[in-house]
Amino acid sequence: xxxxxxxxxxxxxxxxxxxxxxxxxxxxxxxxxxxxxxxxxxxxxxxxxxxxxxxxxxxxxxxxxxxxxxxxxxxxxxxxxxxxxxxxxxxxxxxxxxxxxxxxxxxxxxxxxxxxxxxxxxxxxxxxxxxxxxxxxxxxxxxxxxxxxxxxxxxxxxxxxxxxxxxxxxxxxxxxxxxxxxxxxxxxxxxxxxxxxxxxxxxxxxxxxxxxxxxxxxxxxxxxxxxxxxxxxxxxxxxxxxxxxxxxxxxxxxxxxxxxxxxxxxxxxxxxxxxxxxxxxxxxxxxxxxxxxxxxxxxxxxxxxxxxxxxxxxxxxxxxxxxxxxxxxxxxxxxxxxxxxxxxxxxxxxxxxxxxxxxxxxxxxxxxxxxxxxxxxxxxxxxxxxxxxxxxxxxxxxxxxxxxxxxxxxxxxxxxxxxxxxxxxxxxxxxxxxxxxxxxxxxxxxxxxxxxxxxxxxxxxxxxxxxxxxxxxxxxxxxxxxxxxxxxxxxxxxxxxxxxxxxxxxxxxxxxxxxxxxxxxxxxxxxxxxxxxxxxxxxxxxxxxxxxxxxxxxxxxxxxxxxxxxxxxxxxxxxxxxxxxxxxx
Length: 585
Known about the structure:
It contains 19 helices and 14 strands. By secondary structure, it is an alpha/beta fold.
């Protein structure tokens, strides 16, 4: 599913039509006005003045007809104006917003594509009602601010004076921790070797996963979310794009990963034979189900607390305090780290008991070593090597008529966001230089529209959105379109197991501060990238990176390639083997 935001441009367009209509409807009929003479006229005699105050009365019948005609015109006018205005308002609200009734709460909401940043005008009978709002971290600066305000315990000493010194130290720490995560990368594909690599999957009570899936019908009030969670999380097929393409939602990672884990060749059913323990808790869906409900933070945190209590009764958890346990959470890390002054999300990852396990997320918290970013699920889920090879051949042959493209929407409520600048540059450029797909207009509602645009483009602009990362980065890579990044936290510090440290091999980086200050025109900068450089990057993306960014279907079998799931599992086993040989302080 992809929910769409409302643009101010469309609102202004509808209002202008309304104003034109009102002007036409409210313009009075022409009235004859006697021109005033520029010469002074001597006053008439008093008797004339006295008689001029009298009005000759119309016959009663004529007077009645005049009054009736006037009332008829006024009535028709007043009836037509509200009717048209009502139609305009209904059309506008239907096309751009969502009306939700949850319990005794009425919401009028405008939604973003990520479903975690809804802007609502609400009324309810309960006091102090507040719509949950996501913690938005649009830029690396805001992430650094979080570090400055809430520094984690680190072994490195902060160097330098003032904010600049703290920022430099923070970035250095992030880079070092990403390198540490890269060091766990397994060499080669050892997926078939299960010696000492037993994987135990907890059979959790249904309330922690299956029952959350069963709530999909009212999880998002204006739509049936179930169609995105069918087919073991892959969603309904997209026949237009061919075999293996599905309506996969970006928050479907939990059931997708779970279905693959259940069929892993190294799965064991005896806890004593296991080295790695998988906890299939659908924490992201747990967050999403409370988005439109007026509940307290205690209610939102309750299921996570129950899970921790349940795990503490399990011998494997108690043995190593959860260090050999892994969670897959299908939302960004910030959603599980609710701050005291906000109502959005849970505090699951703030619990002391959750510090030792590995958490695999679509966006990691850069200060926590046990937060590991893994790719957003895309719409393509191959079954075999042949499926991947066919797709690679297709996108390498794709004719790229656009130099640059951008699929997204402005962020009028976030002036520091550079999207508006990029949109302005794109729409003002020649058509072949830049194509803009406005997600505010609903153009991004169909995944095939985005994939087809990216397949026809050399470069795809990927500015931060509701958070630094974007699913669109992976959509562009899977389509062979070179992503243009503006914030290192969008990808470079997020996915150590799936993207290489040398980001120049697969992307172009332009500092968002340069864009914001108008020091650089992005389209003109990209025109300077030679054809040879583009071809080299595209070959690397398609032949080296692409297979490892895909999640195969639940019965997929690969011999030549490792998909995102296989890479992740092999590296988790590598990490566990190193923990066994080298004690962690």
